[in-house]
Design a protein that fits this description.
heterodimer, A: mainly alpha, MetI-like fold, B: alpha+beta, Rossmann fold, OB fold (Dihydrolipoamide Acetyltransferase, E2P), 2 domains, six-stranded mixed β-sheet, six-stranded antiparallel β-sheet
């Protein structure tokens, strides 16, 4: 075995992991604590870590403060899912082509894809706005889906291509010798074998879509009913006050569907990341 | 079942020429083995026959039909790959069914063909398993099963046994020979293992550096190697090659002084050499015997295998010499040994590696 560490090294590794986890998870913890506090608690001095009037009241009040909250959560999941499905429809054949076929400018175009990834959506907001306006897509779901797909295709191609390259070429040659067409081979041989890879890429795309929708939502969409959660959370900021506790509660509730999907897919993710590493 | 001919096949990858003008005529129902060291082009040649690789020039004719431009499936071939290339997500049944499903064959006939293949290959009780649950030999059989069901004219095998351990390889050799007899099919088999070539082939193609060195029956290659390369490639242990100089020539043979001081008159075709030429004398390890007069060698390592004792040593000038002596030969490591060599058993190669035809060699048994 390679992973033999001394006690001291193990302590060091765990300490590093704990520091990292605290750094990542502390905001979530604080969000949760804030969601439990009554609003007036939040402005009280000195800071009180715990008090008896903590409650889940905000979790029921939030639906009244922002009546469309349910819709926003649905929109978030819907937009992210639509982006994921559309992205995968484009990414699968493209990644397969990059993994297996020879064509002019293959490496050049791959590099350009990587280059596109270096621009955040923010840099391209104004041109994108004009494109979407001339296509008449502003203030529709498409306004948030189309740019999302466009920005995620390059990442998807890069991730899936490297996965598909690990599938032995001989399997496809065997299918070819037996008379199978490229599409038949892709459907019956390559994609079934790439399932873990597809799940990994699909998940990465979904996270990306979920994270980037805020920017597109606030710039390309004015329709309240179509807003995703991150944009909808603004409605907790009122004219008089900000109901921070309800906002935190809503944010946590919005993450919940994604968390559930993650727990469900976790074993595939781990399997996918290590697949092909060992000889069968 | 069909004949297979290759006509003036060449293949280049960019500037690198890997196959030089290869022409072969393989008979119907023949088992032909392509053998050679790695990088000799044997796999490329097989892939050109399969249609996985396109020849730069030349044509492939199967069953009298030029298939050079046809895709693999229309050539009437099937191929077994070195890595078996089984689909890990499909059951054994579905793996064997794959080519038939591509053809959209009816269920009843497909099932009948698969059952027949499973019968031949003893896979009947394994059909529902996944390839991952099978041993190496069983996987190999599944790969062969997949190639049988299509009833191809020509079977192609690309080093199919190289992933198996030695014992299993021996068993599979026998099974493949039997399969060839049962199916009565034309088979082309690529290997780097000369034992596989010798044991299974009707005829062997020895390839070296993208050229055919010799094409003949195993015994033809053994007794009448045309070149030094074939001579040293065929036979186990390898043939000993001792440099020497021609002392004199007469119609019945050539007198040669070998390095290390031994002189012999060898009954070979003497028409192309003259006194003073540098030659090499090839002596197979199994063609020497302990004697009182002949080659003096010192034994460095002795391997006793029971049936034979193999000695590794050197002759006077340091040229290595291996001898394979019957039984528990009376030899000790570190002691000198005198080996008698029959002149008729010696091969002579000229400076360019071509053989001088032996005048009295064994008849070739077909």
């Amino acid at each position: 075995m390679m992973d033999r560490y001394t006690k001291l090294q193990m302590v060091g590794i765990y300490a590093a992991v704990i520091v990292f986890l605290i750094f990542i998870l502390l905001p979530f913890f604080e969000m949760f604590m804030a969601s439990l506090r009554p609003l007036e608690h939040l402005f009280r001095s000195p800071y009180q870590f715990w008090s008896d009037d903590f409650s889940f009241q905000a979790y029921s009040d939030m639906w009244e403060t922002v009546p469309l909250l349910g819709r926003y959560i649905f929109n978030s999941v819907f937009i992210a899912s639509a982006v994921t499905v559309l992205t995968m429809i484009f990414v699968v054949p493209a990644a397969y082509a990059y993994a297996r076929l020879e064509f002019p400018f293959k490496n050049g175009s791959l590099a350009i894809f990587l280059g596109v990834n270096m621009f955040t959506g923010a840099v391209l907001l104004i041109p994108l706005y004009r494109v979407l306006r001339s296509m008449g897509l502003l203030n529709t779901y498409w306004a948030m889906i189309v740019p999302g797909v466009a920005f995620l295709i390059p990442t998807g191609i890069w991730l899936l291509r490297s996965y598909l390259e690990k599938i032995p070429r001989e399997l496809e040659e065997a299918a070819f010798v037996d008379g199978a067409s490229r599409m038949y081979t892709l459907r019956r041989v390559v994609l079934p074998l790439a399932t873990p890879g597809l799940i990994v890429v699909g998940t990465a795309v979904f996270i990306g879509a979920y994270a980037q929708q805020f920017l597109f939502a606030i710039t390309f969409n004015q329709q309240r009913e179509l807003q995703p959660l991150p944009a909808g959370l603004f409605e907790f900021i009122g004219y008089q006050d900000v109901t921070w506790n309800q906002m935190m509660a809503a944010a946590l509730t919005g993450i919940l569907p994604v968390m559930v999907i993650f727990l469900f897919l976790q074993k595939y993710l781990v399997a996918g990341l290590t697949a092909g590493a060992v000889k069968e | 079942m069909a004949t297979l001919s290759l006509n003036a096949i060449t293949k280049s990858f960019g500037a690198a020429k890997v196959l030089h003008d290869i022409s072969l005529a393989i008979k119907d129902k023949e088992f032909v083995v392509f053998v050679g060291p790695s990088g000799c082009g044997k796999s490329t040649l097989l892939r050109i026959i399969a249609g996985l690789e396109e020849a730069t020039s030349g044509s492939v004719v199967i069953g009298g039909e030029d298939v050079s431009a046809a895709p693999p499936v229309e050539r009437g071939i099937s191929m077994v790959f070195q890595s078996y290339a089984l689909y890990p997500h499909l059951s054994v049944y579905e793996n064997i069914a794959f080519p038939l499903r591509v053809q959209k064959m009816g269920k009843a006939e497909m099932d009948a063909r698969i059952q027949r293949a499973a019968d031949i290959l003893q896979l009947k009780d394994k059909l529902q398993l996944k390839p991952g649950q099978l041993s190496g030999g069983q996987r190999q059989r599944v790969a062969i099963g997949r190639s049988i069901v299509r009833n191809p004219k020509v079977f192609l095998f690309d080093e199919p046994l190289s992933n198996l351990d030695a014992a299993l390889r021996g068993d599979m050799r026998v099974e493949l020979s039997q399969l060839h007899r049962n199916l009565d099919a034309t088979m082309v088999y690529v290997t780097h293992d000369q034992i596989e070539a010798m044991t299974m082939a009707d005829r062997i193609v020895v390839l070296n550096g993208g050229r055919v060195e010799q094409f003949g029956t195993p015994m033809e290659l053994y007794h009448h190697p045309k070149t030094k390369f074939v001579a040293s490639f065929i036979g186990q242990p390898n043939m000993n090659l001792i440099p020497g100089t021609v002392l004199g020539v007469d119609p019945t043979g050539v007198k040669i002084s070998m390095n290390g001081g031994h002189e012999m008159v060898l009954p070979v075709d003497s028409s192309t050499v003259s006194a003073g030429d540098k030659v090499e004398v090839g002596i197979r390890p199994e063609h020497v015997d302990i004697g009182t007069e002949g080659l003096e060698i010192s034994v460095n390592v002795l391997e006793r295998l029971g049936g034979v004792s193999i000695t590794y040593g050197t002759i006077g000038d340091g040229t290595r010499f291996c001898a394979s002596l019957p039984g528990d030969a009376a030899v000790k490591e570190g002691e000198p040994l005198t080996l008698s060599v029959a002149p008729e058993a010696c091969h002579v190669f000229d400076g360019s590696g071509d053989v001088l035809r032996r005048n009295s060699a064994p008849e070739i048994i077909d």
